[in-house]
């Protein structure tokens, strides 16, 4: 018997001083088309910088005349593109937009040549967010890569880094700001963190995930075999069930939640045209989602919940952000059981992890428990690490999540404005919780997978106030409909942060003052460590 054996795919041979370039994109064609001009300009800059070093760049996939953009827009397309790349060729992944990492991770996993990820340090599209998400995915996969970024690709730091990559396949970054958590001296905070960890390990907790794997964020999927050792288990839920539950919520119940928000001072910027403007009907669906999410959380005895939204639900109902920000707020409209007899999770925030990011789930749950036990307001949120620039001699980050923060971060519901989500990302609209995060002392963190284990980076920062014109400039330079925080990291430079951070998100929680923030950080670090998570202190941290 003879069988017809598949012939191995013929790939081109690599050539000296020649790199291939690919660009991972969004699944939403509106975002790919919108972001393409910025991507094309960035790629030209990168190619010019390599030409100065005597290198040639071959783009491994063309601009598609049908769509008008040159992004890899699905995992399948990624597989096809990789068939045209020599397995040992130097490979550049260039990103000026938010991208779905899984479009390219399959190809990158088996690529044998040196890999460089590069982004423009710019705010107009979430390219830095995309870069950080991709790097975190590669880190989780244990795949070596080099990474770099630049405002205009002409600065000496960028040029030196690029040269190093062409010569060695790596780029060395300064990691002197990171240290392992030392043995903590005994303190009430250490004891609290350890006791909370022991309780979690013994009694266990459940995070409810409405559809895992949002927007290609491989880094945000935590394998059960790693997660369960921390005491946390997943309840896998379907967004279809959430939608079905939303249909059961009455208008009167959603109206009551709306009236609560209005009484608390929230305002909404309404228009007429639902295709591009916010309508009361969109908000009604968002409030039904809020109520439905809490009812399902009650049904399953959840300790935290995450809604993916961005695939599936985005074509069905308005954005999840309003519901998410309300859930993460201690002060929120009451929600009752279906029979109206019991108020659900009364008097407390219910931790929600946006974009079903399971690193955020672990962090939100821990933060909620530590801050609550210390008598502090536990309201916490993820932010996209979006961009930043110097202001008045210090680097001020733009932390900006795509739609929601707890209202307390804005100083209260009276400072929260519902703006319509942009139609490029959110066709069905819905209100954001827009505003400017109040100045104050914060603890930042990120739980991530590296070296095959769960790790947590934990660091201190201040949210500062900037003049109104500067805030407005930063909002207009990014997405003005999204809430912004002006973040100054303690003892961490821009490039140290970019090189080290292994996620597109960072978790942020306030403390009333610096001393309390330092103490709460210790309790949080002790709890993470007690859960078996490797803790790293980043920047100036007092322990
Ligand atoms: C709408 C956009 O895709 C955003 O959702 C994206 O930038 C992220 O939030 C990624 O974390």
Automatic annotation (TrEMBL):
Location of the L-fucose isomerase C-terminal domain: 419-511
Keyword 4Fe-4S set for record: no
Gene Ontology annotations for the cellular component aspect, listed alphabetically: cytoplasm
Record's keyword terms, sorted: Carbohydrate metabolism, Isomerase
Gene3D superfamilies linked: L-fucose/L-arabinose isomerase, C-terminal
UniProt KW Isomerase keyword: yes
GO molecular function: arabinose isomerase activity; L-fucose isomerase activity; manganese ion binding
Coiled coil: none
GO biological process, one term: L-fucose catabolic process
Protein name: L-fucose isomerase
Organism from which the protein derives: Microbacterium keratanolyticum
């Amino acid at each position: 018997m003879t069988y017809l054996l598949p012939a191995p795919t013929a790939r081109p041979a690599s050539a000296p001083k020649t790199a291939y370039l690919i660009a991972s994109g969004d699944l939403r064609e509106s975002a790919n088309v919108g972001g393409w001009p910025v991507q094309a300009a960035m790629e030209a800059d990168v190619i010019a910088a390599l030409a100065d070093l005597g290198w040639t760049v071959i783009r491994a996939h063309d601009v598609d005349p049908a769509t008008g953009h040159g992004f890899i827009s699905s995992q399948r397309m990624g597989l096809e593109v990789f068939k045209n790349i020599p397995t040992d060729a130097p490979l550049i992944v260039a990103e000026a937009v938010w991208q779905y990492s899984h479009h390219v991770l399959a190809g990158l996993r088996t690529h044998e040549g040196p890999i460089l990820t590069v982004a423009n340090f710019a705010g107009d599209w979430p390219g830095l967010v995309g870069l950080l998400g991709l790097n975190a995915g590669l880190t989780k996969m244990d795949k070596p890569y080099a990474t770099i970024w630049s405002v205009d690709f002409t600065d000496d730091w960028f040029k030196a880094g690029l040269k190093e990559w062409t010569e060695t396949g790596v780029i060395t970054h300064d990691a002197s700001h990171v240290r392992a958590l030392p043995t903590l001296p005994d303190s009430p905070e250490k004891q609290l963190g350890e006791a909370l960890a022991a309780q979690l390990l013994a009694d266990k907790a459940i995070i409810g995930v409405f559809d895992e794997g949002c927007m290609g964020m491989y880094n945000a999927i935590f394998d059960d075999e790693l997660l369960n050792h921390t005491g946390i288990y997943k309840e896998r839920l379907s967004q279809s069930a959430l939608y079905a539950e939303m249909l059961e919520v009455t208008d009167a119940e959603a109206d009551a939640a709306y009236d609560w928000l209005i009484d608390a001072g929230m305002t909404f910027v309404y228009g007429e045209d639902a295709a591009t403007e916010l309508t009361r009907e969109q908000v009604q669906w968002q409030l039904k989602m809020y109520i439905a999410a809490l009812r399902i959380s009650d049904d399953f005895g959840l300790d935290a919940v995450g809604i993916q939204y961005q695939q599936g639900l985005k074509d069905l109902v308005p954005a999840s952000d309003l519901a998410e920000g309300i859930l993460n707020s201690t002060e929120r409209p009451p929600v009752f059981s279906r029979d109206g007899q019991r108020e659900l999770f009364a008097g407390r925030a219910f931790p929600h992890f946006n974009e079903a990011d399971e690193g955020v789930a672990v962090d939100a749950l821990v933060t909620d428990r530590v801050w609550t036990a210390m008598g502090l307001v536990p309201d916490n949120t993820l932010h996209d690490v979006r961009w930043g620039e110097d202001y008045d001699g210090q680097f001020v980050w733009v932390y900006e999540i795509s739609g929601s923060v707890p209202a307390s971060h804005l100083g209260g519901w009276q400072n929260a404005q519902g703006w319509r989500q942009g139609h490029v990302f959110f066709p069905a609209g819905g209100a954001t919780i827009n505003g400017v995060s109040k100045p104050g002392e914060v603890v930042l963190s990120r739980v991530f997978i590296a070296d095959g284990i769960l790790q947590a980076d934990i660091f201190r920062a201040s949210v500062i106030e900037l003049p109104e014109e500067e805030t407005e400039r930063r909002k207009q330079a990014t997405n003005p409909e999204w809430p912004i925080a002006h973040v100054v990291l303690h003892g961490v430079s821009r490039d140290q942060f970019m090189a080290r951070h292994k996620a597109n998100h960072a978790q942020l929680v306030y403390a009333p003052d610096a001393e309390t923030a330092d103490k709460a950080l210790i309790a949080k670090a002790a709890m993470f460590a007690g859960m078996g998570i490797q803790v790293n202190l980043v920047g100036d941290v007092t322990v």
